Amino acid sequence: MLHRALRDEACVTNRQLGGSGLVDLTFGNVSVFDPGAGVFAIKPSGVPYADLTPGKMVLVDLEGRVVEGKLRPSSDTPTHRRLFQAFGGIRSVVHTHSRHAVSFAQAGRPIPCFGTTHADYFNGAVPVTRPLTKVEITEAYEWNTGDVIVETFRDKDPLDVPAVLVWRHGPFAWGPSGARAVETAFALEIVAQMALHTLALEPQRGEIEPELLGRHFRRKHGPSATYGQRGHG
């Protein structure tokens, strides 16, 4: 079996996703990328999370070819592939239909950064993509979903804001490992829920002050990070 460690990581993180409360039925998937080998492992389409094993993970290269695996890969595979091509420094992509984040996606609204919980994970609002055109939907829909995500980050650093909402669809998140990407997807749902409650209580609430946003984001990210213990992530 090729890339056993990659398969193991993808299996563990997909099973984590299945038990996280972020997905209903089989509406979600995790991929884990090996940049050196140019392949990623991804959940097979429609298989329940509890039934996943490392051997059921599907290996796909950056040209979209199935390298190893007997099952069909997730229907979202082209989107994951596009993000691995475009976003250097990421090793894992997570897609969910978590309910509060989907609410913002369906409304076509970014998730504003109202407080420090959001700022700990995202350096500003989580953006929403533009709508796909009719042609983009009918031709190579999943690949074009990746394209509009990449377009949305044309002037943004995907490592500063490691998530996006796809118009009328749902969230994608990413990170340097499967575990970190799932954590980011979880954080995204938390801040989406908090933002909805904030808007319900105070519809005119403005976004967080730039100084407070920067202070909290830099505590956890970048060369000047002070949060946590050295060597323990």
Descriptive notes:
The protein has 233 residues and is an alpha+beta fold. It has one domain: Class II aldolase/adducin N-terminal domain (L-fuculose-1-phosphate Aldolase, 3-Layer(aba) Sandwich), CATH 3.40.225. Helices cover 39% and strands 14% of the residues. The chain contains 8 helices and 7 strands. A 7-stranded antiparallel beta sheet has the order 4-3-2-1-5-7-6, sandwiched between helices. Strand 3 and strand 4 form a beta hairpin. Helix 2 packs parallel to helix 6 and helix 3 packs across helix 7. The radius of gyration is 17 Å and the shape is globular. The model has no long low-confidence stretch (mean pLDDT 93).
List keywords for this structure.
233 residues; L-fuculose-1-phosphate Aldolase; globular
Short description:
The chain has 233 residues and is an alpha+beta fold. Helix content is 39%, strand content 14%. The chain has a single domain, classed as Class II aldolase/adducin N-terminal domain (L-fuculose-1-phosphate Aldolase, 3-Layer(aba) Sandwich), CATH 3.40.225.
